[in-house]
Amino acid sequence: MHGWPYLASLGVAVLVATAFGVVIGLIALGLPEEFLILMTLAFSLAIIGIFATFDALGGVMGLTGVTGLRLFGLALDTPRDWLVPSAAVLVLVYALCRRLGESPYGRVLKGVREDAVATRALGKNTFGYKIGVFALTSGTAGLVGGLYSGWLGQATPSAFGFPLAMAVFAMVIVGGSANLLGSVVAGVGLTMIEPALREGLGVQSSQAALLQLVLYGALLVVVMIARPQGLFAERFHRLAPSPAGDGPHTAAREPRAVGDGPRAVVAPRPGPPAPPVSYEDAEVVLRARGLSKRFGGITAARNIDLELRRGTITALVGPNGAGKTTAFNLLTGTVVPDTGSVLLNGVELVGTRPDLVVRAGLVRTFQDVRLLGRLTCLENVMLAVPDQDGERIGRLLRPGVARADREVAARALEWLDFVGLADRAETPADALSYGQSKLVSLARALATRADVLLLDEPASGVDAAWVDTMLQMVAAVRAEGRTICLVEHNLDVVRELADHACFMELGEITASGTVAELTGSARLADAYFGAQ
Ligand SMILES: Nc1ncnc2c1ncn2[C@@H]1O[C@H](COP(=O)(O)OP(=O)(O)OP(=O)(O)O)[C@@H](O)[C@H]1O
């Protein structure tokens, strides 16, 4: 282009595409998902229009006569000459994607793909990762676009229009959106349709191209309906050796010793849980004052004051819609309060991003569990381990990342073992029972090393056999000195565990005290506990 050496043009194409990717990402990621897709499509149309409009950029005819190129001494005169550089780029991009996909960085990306909110609640800066993906994929598109132009012998806007976007889309969806090799196989297979029609069936060249497009569309529809995971489903990688025993797991299980770096602890034996210090004497770790939130005409939280004390369990109870989950959302930064303050160890959390709230030491679980279904149990817990070097793309190629990841796997396995599910380490999370899922979500929260845990209905909807296990686990976590606040409708669980309870109704905490005091209140018994 403009007499530049080919490699220099290619480098500029990669850089410019990367920069555009970041800018588009910054704009599009603020939009709801469906608008994000529309925006990226709209942008691709606009960029083609811009190139076609300005002659300096090539105009409608584009840059023709991209010929006589040489690359590392290779003459690239005919399309066949491009086979070697294209194959080299394929191998390079494949190796890079594979390395990324199997790295801690890739694990976060998989988490974002499955459930960005849940991944953010484990302390990951999901926005940053999404921007990174825009940059990486745009840069790769710039590289491949440069090769494609060389192969075509010209860079015309029409060559990069909707049919090409449709072809790439079909390759990924048909091959399997989470299977790298599947996408390559589908890419080769789908690209061969047109020459097969032409050479094999004698279809005219222009008709073969159109027919190929029709087949792409038809295949996309069929695959999306009949096999949405693509022809080749996601492969699970073994991350750590499974402990012996693969049979069905028994619920009644003793909490295990848990090593957590320097703070190795031994969980207590199951039995009547007892706080290490009295509730009144325990230090206040988290103090919320005057938290309020309105959604349109609904006041979901009204002037909430809440104290959580170290090594104790506080229960939030109250009828459906009382605002308990909203209170958790406000404490963790998922929802920004209209007024109020949340101090964790004296540090203000209001206005802090949810992932930074976790890093500050406050983690939450979700009422609807939100495990990352296509990740294994072990990967779910590994994702929660903080400060992993391999989660930064710049560090991925450094030696020692794989060893560090094995250590993270070992740590995560300990947490799974703690909740009695080490033998499910390699099981995809969506194959677990509800009770097991809740236990893995507890293991995941513990793996973040946050000191304060907000557990949203840890035992609700759980099979009776698993409730006992959950009770033991939560008591063991308290005995370790962590601070817990739980929302729970199961009053037996609250009676068994809570050192202190707050009653919420219509967005307000209207009573607090011991569980016995609350359940003994005639008014509350009438309003709520009577029905339990
Ligand atoms: N994002 C939102 N937009 C609009 N209304 C909301 C939002 N989040 C919560 N609410 C409303 O706030 C009120 C409190 O809801 P919340 O889920 O906090 O109650 P809850 O006590 O956790 O209920 P449950 O026990 O059923 O889980 C409800 O009326 C709910 O509809």
Automatic annotation (TrEMBL):
<keyword id="KW-0472">Membrane</keyword>
<protein>
    <submittedName>
        <fullName>Branched-chain amino acid ABC transporter ATP-binding protein/permease</fullName>
    </submittedName>
</protein>
<dbReference type="Pfam" id="PF02653">
    <property type="entry name" value="BPD_transp_2"/>
</dbReference>
<feature type="region of interest" description="Disordered">
    <location>
        <begin position="243"/>
        <end position="278"/>
    </location>
</feature>
<dbReference type="InterPro" id="IPR017871">
    <property type="entry name" value="ABC_transporter-like_CS"/>
</dbReference>
<dbReference type="InterPro" id="IPR051120">
    <property type="entry name" value="ABC_AA/LPS_Transport"/>
</dbReference>
<keyword id="KW-0813">Transport</keyword>
<feature type="transmembrane region" description="Helical">
    <location>
        <begin position="82"/>
        <end position="101"/>
    </location>
</feature>
<feature type="transmembrane region" description="Helical">
    <location>
        <begin position="208"/>
        <end position="226"/>
    </location>
</feature>
<keyword id="KW-0067">ATP-binding</keyword>
<dbReference type="InterPro" id="IPR043428">
    <property type="entry name" value="LivM-like"/>
</dbReference>
<keyword id="KW-1133">Transmembrane helix</keyword>
<dbReference type="Pfam" id="PF00005">
    <property type="entry name" value="ABC_tran"/>
</dbReference>
<dbReference type="InterPro" id="IPR001851">
    <property type="entry name" value="ABC_transp_permease"/>
</dbReference>
<feature type="transmembrane region" description="Helical">
    <location>
        <begin position="36"/>
        <end position="62"/>
    </location>
</feature>
<dbReference type="InterPro" id="IPR027417">
    <property type="entry name" value="P-loop_NTPase"/>
</dbReference>
<keyword id="KW-1003">Cell membrane</keyword>
<dbReference type="GO" id="GO:0005524">
    <property type="term" value="F:ATP binding"/>
</dbReference>
<feature type="domain" description="ABC transporter">
    <location>
        <begin position="286"/>
        <end position="531"/>
    </location>
</feature>
<keyword id="KW-0812">Transmembrane</keyword>
<feature type="transmembrane region" description="Helical">
    <location>
        <begin position="6"/>
        <end position="29"/>
    </location>
</feature>
<feature type="transmembrane region" description="Helical">
    <location>
        <begin position="127"/>
        <end position="148"/>
    </location>
</feature>
<keyword id="KW-0547">Nucleotide-binding</keyword>
<feature type="transmembrane region" description="Helical">
    <location>
        <begin position="160"/>
        <end position="188"/>
    </location>
</feature>
<dbReference type="InterPro" id="IPR003593">
    <property type="entry name" value="AAA+_ATPase"/>
</dbReference>
<dbReference type="InterPro" id="IPR003439">
    <property type="entry name" value="ABC_transporter-like_ATP-bd"/>
</dbReference>
